[in-house]
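FAQ: What does the model actually see?

It sees only this:
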Amino acid sequence: MEKLLTIEELSEILGVKKATLYSWTSKKRIPYIKLSEGILRFRESEIQEWILKKSVLPDVQSRTLKHIKEGKGNQYHKEKTT
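And it is asked to produce this:
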């Protein structure tokens, strides 16, 4: 069986206060297991997946298109050909 993290362990791993984790669980923002009243546990694999879903990746394509529209997209090529 997969090890279940305590709220103290997860607080340390994520670098957030326990109160924040309790708030997130009450709002169902983070996956958790409620063993009994006041006893919460977290599956490490679910937390890793949750973190991946929260990741914000750079939008390189949009940035490149913006630079092209502004006339900055091909500066290197313009300099070499003139």
